[in-house]
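Re-running Thioredoxin reductase to confirm reproducibility after the cluster update. Everything else is unchanged from the original entry.
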Amino acid sequence: METLVIERSGIGGQAGSTERIDNYPGFAQGISGADLADQMREQAERFGVELLIAQTVASIDAGDEDGGVRTVVTESGDQYRAPAVLLTPGTRYRRLNVPGEDDFIGAGVHFCATCDGPFYRDMDTLVVGGGNSGIEEGLFLTRFASHVTVLEVGDRLRASQVLQDKAAAHPQMDIRLNTTVREFRGDGKLSSVLVEDVNTGQQDELHPAGVFVFIGLDPNTAFLADSVELDERGFIKTGTGMETNRHGVFAAGDVRAGSTKQVAAAVGEGAAALISIRGHMEQEIRNRGYAGD
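Result of re-run:
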């Protein structure tokens, strides 16, 4: 099989931009997301995979219900045709959607600690979200910031126990549970954050130099429109063998409904989807005598 990977940004997705990954098998001491992504890219190229970088897919024609050729169209107007398509567009960071958020993005409000953390050397910072991403990025910020406060709207952190233990033991980190952001304030640049205790309703005004938001993920599936079936949150529904409701179109990784949003799980899903795709291709050859397009 000849394989083409179309990627709108850099290889590795969110994993590639993660500062450190400690739960991927085979790396006992952990590995940076960038290094892991580079190794995956090199391995794919060694097996002859063609990588098309900085190209955004605009739409997919899933073909008829019985099979045939699927057509992928990029924003530049180029078309790529194949008897099988694997959808792995991943997810993006969710916004808080509170007053002031849009006004201060890039001017005090950020979504990537590895990108913007160095700007806050020896300053106080705030992380919103107590899941794996929030704690990971908060720990990374301690390399630069003098102090990091993590806000979690629930009554406990949602991060793995390993990360929770690291955060609890770190002298530069504090955790505030049952706390949500109500407003970002400032004049051209962030100056304060209004937060509220969700149990008591008491509000406080905090004054961090920067805020980093990690409250979950939304799927990158707007381009799919009516191509495949999505759940109520926009994640791709799949059945047996990672196949969508359209024959010959498969999905894997964070974008798939019910996935665990872990790098190792995404890799495993990709392998499972490939087995199904191989079976699909063999059937296409038998049914249609497919010899390339």
